[in-house]
Every structure is written in C-alpha cells, then in structure tokens.
Specification:
The chain has 333 residues and is mainly beta. 11% of the residues lie in helices and 47% in strands. The longest helix has 34 residues. The protein is elongated. The N terminus is likely disordered.
Length: 333
C-alpha cells in the first residue's frame, strides 16, 4: 500500500523566505528614510542650505620686515574671508586684522623678524567656517637688536656676545674685526641669542652682526649692527707701601682711556678713583673715600677700559679684581 506523506520541511522553508523578505523590505525602507533625511539636511543645492566650507591651501606668498602676504584657494559659497593673527606661542586670543573678498591678503604693521600664527575663515555674511591656520608665517628681520658684549674672559681668550632673540630669525652672521676694520673671524650662528669668539687678544674689536630669515629657500638679510667690544685692562702690578697703593696695567690696543676703581671689600663698595687717558699705564692711590690708605687693610682694585670711536662710547665693565695681598678673583654680575 503506497501512502504519500507530506514533507514537514517545505512549510518551514516557505516561512523562512517570507521572514527574510520582510527583513530586507524593512531595511530597504530604513535606508530610503535615512537617505531622505540626509538629502533634507544636505541637499544638492548646498548654497540654499547655507553650507560653508573651510578655505584650502593656505600659504605665505611673500613678506617684508613688517608685513606678511597670504594666499589660499576659494571656499564654496563664501562672500568674504576674515583674517586673524597672533604671535607664535602666545596664549592670547587671535586678533581680527581685516577681511577681503579676494583670496589674497596682506597683514601689515607687524614686528620685524617675528613668527606669527595666522588664521583665515570663510564667511557668507552671517556665519564663519572653521579656521584654516598657518603656524610659521614670518616677517623679515630689519636689524639685530640689543647687540652687546656679555663677558670677556681674557684668561681663556674668549669673548661672549649677546643680542635680543627673535622668533622669526633663522640665523645670524657674526664678524669680528680689528681696529682697522679687517675681518679676523666670521661665523654663522643658528636661531640663538648669543655666541662666543675665541682666541681674542687684549685689544678693542668691532663685532658686526646681521640676521637672516630663510623664506622660499632664500636668505633675507637684515641691516648690519655693530658694537665695540672692549677687554678689561689687566693689572700687572699692585703693591701697598706706607700710605699709598701703586699699580700698573697692560695697555689695551684701541683704548681711549682707563678708569680706576678701589674698595675695601671684594664684591661691593667700589669707588671711582681716577679717569686717565689712553697713554696711561700706571697710577698711585693715596686716598679712598676721603680717607688715607691704611697699610694694615686689604684693598681690592680693578681698571676699566674706555673706548670712544666716533659716536660710539663704551667701557669694558669689570669681571676681575686684584688684591693688595696678592691674587685676583671674579666679580659678581
């Protein structure tokens, strides 16, 4: 007897196909719904929806000692561009310096040799885009400010020179010249605020310095600044005898005079005793602060070198003192 039997898996497969169809249909409707929402927020006509893109390709196109020229690619739907700036490393807020409907702008009245952060924002008249920022815009240096003699260590024949640091300067060119203007040493220094000249003699030198900034693979130099660097006169003899102190010193080539100072204390209380001309190389001290020299006391003495060339007048300052009991030491400062 042949009896046909129903296959139970047929109904189950049909149910699975129906269920999957419903799932796919539901997902398709979800996708269409989300697409509709996206188009509602970001329609093809972006301008009608007020979409505003940030500027692209912001770069520094040029510079002077007090200005920076900027360029960028246009922003979609922008009616103008607003330019902001501040000095590099500053925690202050950006300052609005102007606006333009072009894709080029020049920021003026800036400090020379200085690095700036600059920021450009697109605007449609009612709102701004996010800012595009350039972190290394620079002005060219005009001169080296604050050039000065820091220390002259004549026992090791070394001269330290310093100047004011500028954030936009790439480096410095330093020349050491003799009294006749001949360049004896020349060196390049990186983005620093000091350097040393070695193998110097007891002579007045002229130090010339100019700064430069590298922009678009070219060095842009400042004007040259110069100072006279003057060594302290070196005491060769200091002796106390009776009620007087006799001293002599080595004359400094290029000096125009000398100042003698003395004190009864090592590190303070020095009083100017006498100012002498360039031909002088010795002197006798008989009084200090109106009092006669006491042979039982210890006195400390130094000689400062003076140099006046044209309108430039300077002095060596004092790094060393000498004692009537023998020896010498460093003065503070």
């Amino acid at each position: 007897d042949n009896v046909s039997q129903e296959n139970p898996s047929v109904g189950t497969d049909e149910k699975r196909r129906v269920t999957m169809k419903k799932i796919v249909t539901t997902k398709l409707w979800a996708v269409l719904l989300l697409t509709g929402l996206f188009l509602a927020v970001y329609p093809k006509d972006a301008k009608a929806a007020g979409y505003l893109s940030a500027v692209q390709d912001l770069k520094q196109a040029d510079a002077t000692v007090n200005s920076i020229a900027l360029e960028w690619s246009p922003s979609e739907n922008a009616t103008e561009y607003r330019v902001y700036y501040k000095e590099s490393g500053s925690s202050a807020d950006y300052v609005l310096c102007g606006s333009t409907n072009e894709t080029r702008f020049v920021i003026s009245n800036l400090k020379d040799g200085t690095e700036y952060y600059v920021q450009v924002k697109a605007s449609d008249g009612t709102k701004e885009s996010i800012g595009r920022t350039l972190y290394d815009a620079v002005t060219f240096p005009a001169k080296v400010d604050g050039l000065h003699q820091k220390r002259w260590y004549y026992f090791i024949h070394s001269l330290d020179i310093g100047w004011d640091y500028k954030s936009g300067v790439s480096g410095y060119e330093i020349s050491l010249c003799n009294s006749k203007g001949k360049v004896l040493q020349k060196k390049e220094v990186g983005a620093a605020s000091s350097t040393s000249c070695n193998n110097v003699k007891d002579s007045v030198y002229t130090v010339e310095a100019r700064a430069y900034t590298v922009f678009q693979n070219q060095k842009h130099y400042s004007a040259t600044s110069s100072i006279n660097c003057i060594p302290q006169a070196r005491i060769s003899k200091l002796k106390i005898s009776g009620k007087k102190i006799s001293l002599s010193w080595k004359k400094v080539d290029g000096a125009t005079g000398y100042k003698i100072y003395a004190s009864t204390k090592k590190y303070k209380g020095y009083k100017l005793i006498k100012t002498l001309g360039k031909k002088s190389g010795k002197y006798t001290i008989t009084k200090l602060k109106g009092k006669k020299i006491n042979p039982k006391k210890t006195y400390y003495v130094y000689v400062e070198t003076i140099c006046k060339k044209g309108k430039k007048k300077g002095s060596s300052g004092a790094l060393y003192y000498w004692s009537t009991k023998g020896g010498y030491g460093h003065l503070p400062g």
